[in-house]
Amino acid sequence: MKVYFIGAGPGAADLITLRGAKLLGSVGMVMYAGSLVPTDMLQHCRGDAEIFDTAALDLEQQEACYRRAQLADCNVARLHSGDPAIYGATAEQMRRLDALGIEYEVVPGVSSFSAAAASVNAELTKPAVSQTVILTRVSGRASAVPEAEAIAKLAEHQATMCIFLSGPHLKKIVADLRLHYPAETPVTLVYRATWPEQRIYQGTLATVLKQTKRTEWNLTTMMLVGAALGKELSLESSLYSKDYTHIFRVVKKAKKVKVAA
What's the CA gap between 6 and 155, in Å, rounded? Predict the structure, then answer.
């Protein structure tokens, strides 16, 4: 018996990985958080699979499902939204699986931050502008953010920031960002990236609060901010320059012509 922690991706049923979909169609038990993973994802499941929505289950109740599968020698797919490595709450499940002697494996998925960037055709890193992406969030009731990682402190780097679950805290986030980012810094909000109800706002730190209503951006909203989001930047990487040599592409230098004395 084995548990597979599978990244379901940001929402669209066809953005799960091939490996994840194949495993989902092979196991006898599936556990998924219905508040974060759309039911469309279950189309990849076996017709006879036992399916549990864990949105209303506490950790002990989820452990009971694992025990039940263990007794039946049944493999389990534990679907997590996005990628399990980012805010996946998998560590506490793994500790219990270790105690039960149950083997497990992690299958990565497409994170909502990359899906949000894709929704507006944005590159989060650009030469000489930002080569660093900070993934963060604000403190919530379920888990606190360490003081050293407060947005106001992370903003000092002026790198590209991807702020998860930002909707209810927009006013505070913008105030913290404005301590270090210029008012004209580009901002993108993406609500439920890749879901049918996906919604997008693009503006700046100066306009975002004036042009949006907080109630329309609650819950699963991703905020992207940083100079790299600007479309007007024309700096290009040297990677594909005709003058750039690397082990896969050698630039032939023009032969010097000797001039007779």
Answer: 32
126-131's contacts with Cβ under 8 Å and 24+ in sequence apart are 126/227, 126/228, 126/233, 126/235, 127/235, 127/236, 127/237, 127/238, 128/235, 129/227, 129/228, 129/230, 129/233, 129/235, 130/158, 130/159, 130/160, 130/226, 130/227, 130/228, 131/159
**CATH code for the domain of 60:** 3.40.1010.10
Is the CB of residue 8 less than 8 Å from the CB of residue 41? yes
Note whether residue 7 is domain-resident.
yes
- Residues 12 and 83 reside in one and the same domain: yes
What pTM did the predictor assign?
Answer: 0.86
Q: pLDDT grade, residue 244 (50/70/90)?
A: low
**Which amino acid appears at position 175 of this protein?**
A
Domain match, 116 and 223 both: yes
145 and 91 share a domain? no
CB 83 within 8 A of CB 111: yes
Structural domain range at position 162: 112-229
Do residues 97 and 117 share a domain? Answer: no
Query: How far is the CA of 14 from the CAs of 10, 41, 144, 191, in angstroms?
Result: 10, 8, 33, 19
Tell me how many domains the chain contains. 2
What is the domain-level CATH number for residue 183?
3.30.950.10
> Are the beta carbons of 5 and 105 closer than 8 angstroms?
yes
Instruction: Dump pLDDT digits (tens) for 13-52.
Output: 999 999 999 999 999 999 999 989 999 999 999 999 999 9
